Structures are given as structure tokens and as C-alpha cells.
Amino acid sequence: MSKVTMKKYYCCKCxxxxxxxxxxxxxxxxxxxxxxxxxTWQKKLQRRGCSGDxxxxxxxxxxxxxxxxxxxxAQSLIRRDLISANYTPLHPHVYNIQKNYFSPAFLSIVDACxxxxxxxxxxxxxxxxxxxxQVFSFPLFTQQFCQxxxxxxxxxxxxxxxxGRPNTMNNYGVLLDDLGFxxxxxxxxxxxxxxxxxxxxxxxCGGASLDSHKAFVVKYKLGEDxxxxxxxxxxxxxxxxxxxxxxSDGSLYFGDMRWVPPQETACAExxxxxxxxxxxxxxxxxxxxxxxxxERYNLIIWxxxxxxxxxxxxxxDEEPQLMxxxxxxxxFTMDRxxxxxxxxxxxxx
Length: 349
Hints:
Blueprint: E1 10-12, E2 20-22, E3 27-29, H1 34-46, H2 53-70, H3 72-86, H4 104-115, H5 120-126, E4 128-129, E5 136-139, H6 143-157, E6 173-175, H7 176-179, H8 182-201, E7 212-221, E8 228-231, E9 237-244, E10 247-249, E11 252-257, E12 268-270, E13 276-281, E14 284-288, E15 291-304, H9 306-309, E16 322-324
Antiparallel strand pairs: 1-16, 2-3, 4-5, 5-13, 6-7, 7-15, 8-14, 9-13, 9-15, 10-15, 11-12, 11-14
Helix pairs in contact: 4-8
């Protein structure tokens, strides 16, 4: 089992002010103060039909989100303590990574990467390359593991214990570190099984130096969240696993990297089958089409490289202004790696 790192992690201060999603108008806004918000966003929101009392309501909603973010670390610790003290897992075994959770095909890919027998070209031949650039799919988990994992998540959802939102765009789901999946499941999954693959596929965006994560399960269901708007992730590399249950439609779609102008972007649709995983660059814009029936659970892991993001925050495109937090934060550290060892993602913007 992987040794858990004790490195201290931070957030960038832009987390408190930027990329605040307003679902009613499908727009991300920033908030520094009321005057700034009025000057920057009032006319843009008016053009989308938001004015008068509705604008005041949105402003209050944005301010509430900023306050939620300020208290996120403390609330996370409270949730974890309550869950640890009061929750009895339905399937305790799913909290610890085991080889028999994986499909034989995936284990063969990992073994080949670890042995050094493959280069990036031969690895790509072992994966399914989707029509979207540098998006790869492959069977990851067994059907039995996916069933057990979903049952565990549903069991937790049925309790009255506190639950944190996965992000500002998904209203339904579970933060896996709150439940205790981090040290014995997510971290070894990344270090022992995924990094041998990502270091070949994504060397230019930190695929060889993934050292922190944010992991969560999202849920789509009629009457709740049906789809996910076009966006990019706060990650260097993203793993997206379709767990089940039974559902129809709900394909993913991928455009281009976030700095490519929309008028130069064409989207490719990707069908996501249960037990299969997708790997893609975090800054690759994507979304999810609505499900038409049933219920769908996806495991999402935002994998981060402090080597990359210490030089340029992917959310504000500036050198990060660090603020203390709990856990992995947004994956920034105090380390400043030498220039010749750094992946300079800002140069690509």
C-alpha cells in the first residue's frame, strides 16, 4: 500500500472570488465586492434576462457562495468527525483498494506500463482513443465492485449525516474524503495504478507528478441534476468512471482546451458505459448531456500536480496567492521547483 504523503497543501485566494457558477443563467462570475459585481456582471446578466429583484437575488446567492467557500475547511472537518463517529459502512471492504476490484484488461495495461515494455504509441493501442483529442477510455472496475460501491454511497445518502456538495455545478453527490476513502482507496489508486499510465499519456501537463486529488461521486436522476454544463476541471488530469445504475442517454461531450476560442471549437460526443473509465486533461472543456431515464452515478477524481500548479493557478492564470486550508486544498504547495523542472502551463494560454 502506498505511503500517505504529509506534505502541506494550500488553496489559491482566487477560490474565494472567482469561478462562481450561476446555474439559472449558465455563467461563471467573480465577486470581490458589490460595486465590482455590479460593474462587471450586471449588464452581462441583464442580457440573459436577469434584472430587478432577480438580480438582487443572484447577488445574494453569490455572496452566500463566497461565505460558504470561506468556511469550507472548517465545515469539512466537522463533517468528517461526525461521519467518522456515527456512520457504519454497508460494505467496509470498498474503502481499501484491492486488485480484484479491477478488470483484467486494466491490470494488464498497468503491468505493461510498470514494466517499461510500452511507449506512448503502444499504450494508446491498448486503450480506446475517443474522437476527442487525448481522451481515452478503458474498462476499469468489475461490475461487482461498481455495484458494491454504489450501494455504499446510497447507504450513506440515506442517513441524516451532513453531506458536502461535490462542487458548485453538481448539487447531488458525495465527497469521498469526507467518508474516509482518501488514504486507502483514492491515493493508492492514483499512485499505484493510474500514474504509470498518465505519465506516458500526459507528460506535458503533470501526468508524472500527480500528488494530490479531489475525489467525489456525482449523481444524475430525473427530478434532480440531469446534465452538466460545459466547463473545465480544477485538475491537471481527470478520471471519470461510469459506475451505473441503469440509465439512458447522458453522453459526455468534449470541445477543446479552455484557451481555444469557442468559434474555433467543435464538440465530440462520447458514450460512457458502466465499469469504464475516461482519462482526459483537466483543462479540456466538456459537459454531460441530460439523461432521459433512470439514475446514474459517476466517480470523478481530479488529479493534481503541485509541480504544475505552483507556477500558474489553472483557475485565475496567475501565480497562486496561497491561503491555508485543510487536507489537499486545491493542490498547491510552498515548494517552488527549479525553472528547468517546471511544466509551464501558462505559456500555452
